[in-house]
């Protein structure tokens, strides 16, 4: 097992964070806010650019977009070809944003300011030891290197939940960028065309509010979980959209230990060996009771037939789940201690544990992409996991490359083999 390691704090913002998305291999978006009450706490998005200075990860603020009185509780990003869209949950509605990407001169960005969408002039801020990432050569250079800048423009807004206390709880966009799924307090899953956001199908999926949704990598399947304890797999393609009254393809049946009642909390699909049509399904489940003695569960499923392949118990309830884009690693965040863990996807072996990464429960996780768009962040890590919480902090947790044998042991083994070989040759007089 790799030694425990946490790069820790990347950036601190001035509002609670509820959702986290990657825009490119180097750019991450965080969102949240203080709500509609007049607390003085802002609502909106911030985008950071990630880099590695040879010792640690660094984040630099690229832009900020405030959303007025509307807190952003959930969001999804679709970045295909030259168009990037952001779908954000704001109360009972889903607000669509167009994200315009442009290249700007690096030296100009360092010297000056840029204009945000709301018309305010904001100077780009350096965060958490960014100065370590800028050498004297960079400071004195007149380089014309180009860097990415973003502009967020509001577009259409649609109501996606119609319960008594309507609230969109989750939004997901299919990998091909053609479908959007939303879920809220009314227990219904709604499928929309994207980016037009025209309603294609309403699924009477659950009797209580939706907790999470996810599309399969091949776009044909959708998983939903809710507070009624159910977890179901649905047809999400053209055939599924046409079958208005069709039931679930598969209903997941958990096998909790000791007969304890568990509720599903989060769900994510993950690739197998980087193949689009071969994938796994991961879920988190928490005990119905709030006793600290009960353990949370990480579960690995075969989505083709709904069989439970593996279960790992964790010492506390779980709150956040992420799978890296190549399917190799799974990230988990906890409810009470604010801890973060990384697991190997196929075996659910824990390879990194960061105790107390946040002072409160973890609200979102995303891996620094292994594939994605644009050049990756060069680092000495096998994996890097980003985490957020309502403690206003964006953190990173990196996993060193694992070695099957310590270097000192390998050296001793080589010496031993050479000694045995020499002894054997001497014995036979060779």
From TrEMBL:
Main location class: endoplasmic reticulum
Transmembrane segments: 407-429
PROSITE patterns: WD_REPEATS_2, WD_REPEATS_REGION
Location within or outside the cell: Endoplasmic reticulum membrane
Segments annotated as WD repeats: 171-202, 203-234
UniProt keyword list: Endoplasmic reticulum, ER-Golgi transport, Membrane, Protein transport, Repeat, Transmembrane, Transmembrane helix, Transport, WD repeat
Protein's membrane topology: Single-pass membrane protein
InterPro entries per record: Sec12-like, WD40/YVTN_repeat-like_dom_sf, WD40_repeat_dom_sf, WD40_rpt
Region ranges (Disordered): 127-147
Name listed for the protein in its UniProt record: Prolactin regulatory element-binding protein
